[in-house]
Specification:
30% of the residues lie in helices and 20% in strands. By secondary structure, the chain is an alpha/beta fold. Strands 7-6-5-8-9-11-10 form a 7-stranded mixed β-sheet, sandwiched between helices.
Amino acid sequence: MKPSFDALLVCPVCHSELLLGQDYFCCTGSACRQQYPLVGSIPILLSEHLSTFRMAPYCSRLNETYQPSWRKRLRQLVPRISGNLVARTNFKALVVRLLTQTERPRVLILGGAERGEGISPLLDDGRLECLESDIVIGRRTEAVFDASYLPIRSSSIDGVVVQAVLEYVLDPALAVAEIHRVLKPGGIVYSEMPFLQDVHGGRYDFTRLTHLGHLRLFRHFEEIASGACAGPATALAWSLQQFFLAFVRSPWLRDGVKIATGFSFFWIRFFDYFLAATPGGLDGATGTYLLATKSDLVLSDRRLLEKYRGAVPVGDVL
């Protein structure tokens, strides 16, 4: 892990300082004293008392080297039925804002085992220090965190990226509260969440939110920008693929269906270049994004309702 982040680490249970040993971190809190192993150079900063994840699977990988499976390589050759229309532009905007606030921003990336879509402007800018964390050990994982219990000192981070992560968290509100805690005053968060998508994370897939639902989740933040990552065209392609996946169960047949539907339906998503930015496109978004700053104020529900930008007339609801 990057040395510049070592001083920011705390115990995820009691937030006491951590002491680095030969192959573990040890909590210095007198009532805690938990130890957190290093797998290779990756700290596993999880508490089995709080998290649903267990230490043993991580520790058993001590001598493993991450290699992408041939199935993942095969999927990369199949045309994609989905795409993110705004991520690259949003990450550029995030970089500009971070560098305006401080000369050497520190950015915590949650879900960073693989490069997120469009994230290159952030990761490739040498003026920023990024810590790529995840709950899994992937090719880019530098530390293992549970997003609901961040082992990071309060008010110490300039920016947090949580791209397509909160749907896998049991209690997204708890994770957002942790993001708020670790950000400095005026710190910036960039979040993406799914809306019209099928379950793709198995047993660890819990939450879908509308645009307003996304804003309310981050009601302790002040919105800079928000909208659809992809619109109803991508949602249609996802639904068509899921329709055919519902007929099969084995991993081999599912891979076959994904290959067939990828080649058959990839073209549908291009309609989102016209639809995603429309009011109806926001109502039917595949997923939404939010760029926001940490705030001491709370977005009221009345003000939240005023932020609706979709196409459904008030008379259709009331």
